[in-house]
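Bit of a strange request maybe. I'm writing a small parser for structure token strings and I need a real example to test against, not something I typed by hand. Could someone generate the tokens for this chain?
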Amino acid sequence: MPSIEVDGRHNTIAGRDIITISAGHGLVRQVFGDQILPTTLTWQRERFAEPLDFHVAVESLRVNKFLALTADGGARTAALCLLHDVHNEARTVEHVEVEQDTELRLRRVSEDALVLIDFRTAEDTRPVEAQIGGFLSEQVPRGHVVVLLSGNESEEFLHRYGHLRRKLPSPWLEEVLQAHLRHDLPGDQLCTLLADSDWLDLADGARPADVAHFAELVLRARRDAPLGDSIREAFEAFHKYAKTLSKEFDGAKARERSALLALALVNNGRHESIYRAERILLDLTNHLEDEPSQVLASEGFVRRLGKIAHTATFLDRTKFTRRDYDTSVLNHVWRGFPQLRDHLSDWIVAVAFDDQARLDPQTRQEIAARLLALCTDTSDAKPLLTAVRRWVQHNIALAAGLLDEAAVDERTTVEVRRRMYWWAKDPELPVPLARAIVEVCAAQFGKVHTQLALTRLGHLTGHARAEVVRRVEDALLVLATEQGKADVVLGRMVEWLRTSTGGQWAAAAIVVREMTLPGRRFHLRGASGFAAWGAILRSSNHMGVVEGLKDWFSAASGVDREVRAVPFSLLVEAAGNDVNALNLLGMAVDLWKRDQPEGREEVHAELRRLIDAQHPVVRR
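Reply from user aminoacidic:
Good idea to test on real output. This should exercise your parser:
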């Protein structure tokens, strides 16, 4: 399912504030998933401002192979750069964001990979704390280096690993700005910027992340208007046009405010849609008309829109002409008028599917994207989650797209992932919302955070409605088609087969069956399919295994003998010398042939020959 993306010169919606600039001046989205690639690690290191004692931490990591890190700012960037400098080269980083259900033993660490474990994402780290010792004793002898981002640990854990804990101070903000701009901004312009009074004001109390964001805005402004004043534009955008809006909104009358807000929400929408959005806002805030009896004498709505600064009207649409000005208006009201937050949230949710607003699909997507920008700007996902619950009743794809974007955005990901986790555990969750979560787990969130997506899909196998479980199975197969994900999915299926029963076991068995059918193009290592079928054949759910095998035999009978030879051998080898497993396999193929004797003799004979050759009793 595609992510929300609305492109336009003045309003590039998708990833407004999580887009950074590559050395080649291209826009690249920095999303940190289960694996962080060497190219991303190199990009981070080239733009890293080293804090005090950074090299001391590198040496400690080289010696001990493990480090628990805290930092006053930019902790993950510092952790990645520590891992980079241990070997003075970029390698793949296995990124583990801890949750209640995290099982470190299930995480496959590829050869030469580095490991970053983030405790900051967990509500309760104690279940994973108990696994750290075993994980280190397994990974360190193999040559792996591990950094743990510290947060929320128990006193016992801090006592045990306190001698390996390091805290890094914030880097100098001037150095952070230089590190992010030195590749793209001419030296004289950078020096001028560092002496700018607006920069000095910005740096007073800012965080490293704020400075990195400002640098991004400078480069985006240079890209969009090479001949313009990119520095001034970046300052305005960074402060979200606060000075301008303090005049245009704070000092305005109620009807001027309502028109400005309506345009901000339905920016570039049809005038009738903007007008309806204003009416809904006025009703929600119980605003009384100034002159209710003078409708014919009232000022025209389009004329009112034309009086708003920084706008342009073409035919039946009006839009802002300044970058991100729409979300800046919403953000300004959200932050500056807390008494309006509940009204604002209810209003955004209500407008999107109001019948009289007559919004087209594109405008609805833009409203969803503005809500996403508002929530990421304020690091508060609650309005967005409320919208998802309401909108999913009207348009599952839109709600899922919004949820997917929020689940991979750094500023909302933890809150959204936790909510999805608890939603997924509810067997009575409304079907549209369950379907949205399934779609998210098969989309960008699933590609980036595959292990976390598998956890949520696993809980959804316990849903009361069979249609939801079928969609979970389909989503697992979609994930498995992604490059490098087939073995990850199959590994989790093996775990479900060994430790679960009921719906989760059945879903895992179906996915294994589909992934190992003859002729399917899943890129699996031989050991993965072997372990999966071994777990199925040793299950206590004999009737479930037999029924699954019969379906598998039927599918296999439809392909050439040469094609099915490898999976047939895999199936029998997975049984090994286990008499019970071989007997179960033999019973399944005999029952399959008995159900329809004609046309199944050849496949039956092939399998019987392989089973008998493997069976320790028959061999004698």
